[in-house]
Amino acid sequence: MRTALVLLFLLALAAIPGSALPQRTVSVEQVDDFYVDYPELAPWLDQLYLFDVYSSPWFAAIYLLLFTSLVGCVIPRMRTHLRALRSPPPAAPRHFERLPYSARFTTTASPDTVLAEARRTLRGHRVRTSTDHVAGERGYLRETGNLLFHASLVGLLVALAAGSLLGYRGNMLVVEGDGFANAVPSYDAFHPGAAVDSADLEPFTFWLEDFEASFVEDGQLRGQAENYTAELRYRETPDGPEQYHDLEVNHPLSVQGAQVYLLGHGYAPEFTVTDATGEVVFDQAVPFLPSPEAEDMIASEGVVKVPDTSEEQLGFRGVFLPSPTENAAGELISDFPAPRDPIVTLDAYQGDLGLDSGESQSVYQLQTEFMEEIGTTTALGVGDTWELPDGAGTITFTGYSEYISMEVTSDPGRVPALVASSVAVAALLLTLLVRPRRCWIRVHRADTADAETVVEVGGLSKTDHAEVTADFHAVTTRLRNRLRGDSRASQ
Amino acid sequence: MQVLPVDIADSWSLSALSDTMVLAMIVAYAVGLLLFAVEAAYGQRTTLRSRTPATVGGSGTSEGGGDEPDDLEVRLRETPSQVKAPRHWVGTLGLVVVGLGLVCNLLQIVARGLAAERWPWGNMFEFVVAICFGAVAAFLYVALRHQARFLGVFVLVPVLILLGVAARWLYNEAGPLIPALDSYWIAIHVSAAIVATGAFMVAGSTTIAYLLAHRAELRRAAGEVVTGVAGQLPSSQVLDRLAHGLIVFAFPLWTFSIIAGAIWADEAWGRFWGWDPKEVWSFITWIIYAAYLHARATAGWRGPRSAWISLAGFACLLFNFFAVNYLFSGLHSYA
Ligand code: HEM
User: Fold this and answer.
1) pLDDT tens per residue across span A181-207
2) DSSP single-letter state for residue A23
3) Residues near B225 by Cβ (< 8 Å), separated by ≥ 6?
4) Angle CA(B271)–CA(B272)–CA(B273) in degrees, nearest 5?
5) What is the dihedral angle through the alpha carbons of A443, A447, A449, A450, rounded to the nearest 10 degrees?
6) What pairs with residue A127 in β-bridges?
7) Which residues surround ligand 1 with Cβ inside 6 Å?
8) DSSP characters for B270-332?
9) What is the DSSP code (8-state) at residue B166?
């Protein structure tokens, strides 16, 4: 038990750093930000798995030790318990006075009558009658519950392990009107379990037909989202029938054992870019991400990369404000999350986007090491065009669409994990609420001349509770009262 | 006179009612605290009614209707420790006042829920008010069922601090929920967490009382005279059992609440467990209370050591509730 206690503390301690440091399982971006803020410290922490605490070897070592100790603890107890379940209650001890509860009284009833009544009084106990006493025991369910609880913790661990081996998780943004096919290249980020065959995901497809968001208009909570609904058209298999689903935050789509979730939404401004020769070299919607500081009003940031120009490549960093207004300091901010005359502001860069270097690049970040800033716009409304300096081309803010951020998860362990943890709660209740106890009732003839019988009652309980003592006493008084009834009836 | 459309008038007066009730319950709890403090300071140390048979060596009591005299002898290996606590009539008044406060607390919660047309736990303010309801309800239960009103001071001090913090810094208009909170699982998950937290809070108060009483007993055994609140407390054994009973009630509920939360997270965020800071600290809290239950079955760890473990568990619970919402960012921060 002491080992278990120490390991439980260790587990609790080991879980702490993961709540204070950014975790890759929670947000890769936060870890990247941490690297930017603490370039010296971050690699050190990473060496110690401090950005992946819950999948780190040292965390695993602690819980595996704990579970080893648990199994080592539970199996012998299970054997003992099975034996106890099969055997009758143990015989009465010689000296009742040493028991936590004992009582004695005399009666005129015969010993056989007393024993018969004693058996009836111990209803609800498992009883065994011998020549001079009745032994009763009850509350076996406590130990059953305890063992079942610990066993279901093992079950939970197995379910979680199976889920992380066989499951996967992927994130993506889908712009209104676009579709999605469940395959690795469709994801912005994809995290497969070790035993997942990434070439063989469930072959479902869907299209985002429409998206609506509504927000609180007035009061202290102005701008808080009230509801998001995305209308999906989907097929479970490439040649299955088309079906519809209204995707909401708490209403995921379940297809083929995978879950499709709506996480959030944002805006994708549409741009048309022409190069120095006047040719259109870019024309599409670009999802901008809500900037962390102004998330509630969906002031968003994004980049536009235009590699296919006649001369040097173009890149833009932009800000999209759905409901622009000026704050007291004269800065442009967004004061409502819904689009009301949205604007974008852009910084333009010219040079090499670095796309050919072979290193993978985030589509939300512009690498400007080999680029030169050539200008900044004033606010552009929908339809406005900005002539880039030195005839480098033009960029037009042609409109905007909404996109939703989504997640697909497939976790074969989730239902087994739910079953295991429900069993754990039920078993926990048994182990905490059932009070096991043993009660003996012994008779012998009094030494006096009268035809009297001495009745002794003894009670033993593993849990020391006033209530249990009161229950033993209730057995005594019930027995005494019955015997009185009997003796009166026989008189 | 201007006539408001009925539903607007209703929801306006409901939220006004709920705001009045916040004040009313703070006043009632404060008065209750005062009365319990008077009882603790000036009450007569009295032996409370015991629920174990007090018939050691005596003849049968009236229990079970045995009215004839007989020779029943009962022997208990340990004489049941008598529960002694200061008693004064103002304490009874205190119970009544706190009971009224609890009614205001309930009315506040109901009015706010009706005003906002949703479950009344959607933000920190509402959580705190509901937790105080849970704690005071748990206190009244043990006060009536286990005659433990000597805990009044220990429970009402943190309750009033929490309510003060809530009214001063956390107050929020009754408004709709953010979409992620709009689910019936929230009702289940948060209700269970609130009731469990209320019971853990009373358990924590009882544990502090236990530690004080335990120290007082050690000092008394060393021949010192113990005065003040600590000297007046019932025996540490009684407090220990009471605290354990409360944790035995709260722990399965907390376990259930974590599971309901996981089901909700699965619906709302696409994973049932993601190690977000809130989840990490619920897990830590759970592990520490499990350690407490283990410690009570481990030789050498019973008594003050397990009491400190349970206080550590409660500290984690508080940390989870306050610090995590403000210090760490995660899906769970609704502050
Ligand atoms: C995953 C880690 C574990 C958790 C969460 C856990 C949880 C619990 C809980 C909540 C109880 C309380 C039930 C009661 O009070 O009767 C308990 C009891 C118990 N646990 Fe564990 N346990 C764990 C690991 C272990 C291990 C490793 C051992 C073996 C040394 C163990 C042995 C026991 C025993 C013997 C009891 C019964 C105590 C009694 O009879 O009162 N547990 N456990």
Assistant:
1) 999 888 988 888 888 888 888 899 999
2) -
3) B231
4) 95
5) -30
6) A136
7) A 1, 4, 66, 69-70, 73, 146, 150, 153, 431-432; B 290, 293-294, 297
8) S-S----HHHHHHHHHHHHHHHHHHHTTSTTTTTHHHHHHHHHHHHHHHHHHHHHHHHS-STT
9) I
Measured CA to CA, the distance from residue A443 to residue A118 in angstroms comes to 10
Strand A437-445 relative to strand A133-138, pairing? antiparallel
* Residues 6+ away with beta carbon under 8 Å from B64: A474, A477, A478, A480, A481
Out of A103, A422, A425, the one facing B74 most closely (by C-beta) is A103
Nearest CA to ligand 1 atom 30: A1
> Which of A8, A11, A26 is facing B294, going by the closest CB pair?
A8
Nearest-CA neighbor of B313 among B236, B246, B233, B235? B246
Q: Given a cut of 90, is residue A490 above it in pLDDT? A: no
B204 CA distance to ligand 1 middle (Å): 21
Name the closest residue on chain A to residue B306, using Cα atoms: A5
Alpha helices in B146-276 (DSSP H): 152-165, 184-221, 228-232, 236-269
Atom of ligand 1 nearest to the CA of A463: 41
CB contact under 8 A, A425 and B252: yes
| Element of type H or E holding A121 | helix A111-121
Cβ atoms of A434 and A183 closer than 8 Å = no
Is the model's pTM score more than 0.95? no
Residue partners of A142: CB distance under 8 A and separation at least 6: A430, A431, A434, A435, A436
Taking residue A131's Cβ as centre, other Cβ atoms within 10 Å add up to: 7
- How do the pLDDT tens digits run along chain B, 335 residues long? 334 444 444 556 777 787 788 889 999 999 999 999 888 887 777 777 665 554 444 333 434 444 455 678 888 877 666 677 777 888 889 999 999 999 999 998 888 888 877 777 777 888 899 999 999 999 999 898 888 888 989 999 999 999 998 888 877 666 666 665 667 787 899 899 999 999 999 999 999 999 999 999 999 888 888 877 777 788 888 899 899 999 999 999 999 999 999 998 888 777 888 898 889 999 999 999 999 999 998 888 888 999 999 999 999 999 998 877 766 654 554 43
d(CA A99, CA B252): 32
User: Among B293, B298, B302, B306, which residue has the most ligand 1 atoms within 8 Å of its CB, making it the best to mutate?
Assistant: B293
Task: Measure Cα distances from A317 to A34, A288, A349, B270 in Å.
Answer: 22, 10, 8, 31
Alpha-carbon B292 to chain mean position: 18
H or E stretch including B119? Answer: none
ipTM over 0.90: no
**B244 burial class (0-12, 13-18, 19+ CB within 10 angstroms)?**
buried
Window A:135-164, CB contacts with B under 8 Å:
160
Cβ atoms within 10 A of the Cβ of B255, count? 21
Contact B295 A5 (CB under 8 A): yes
Residue whose Cα lies nearest atom 28 of ligand 1: it is A70
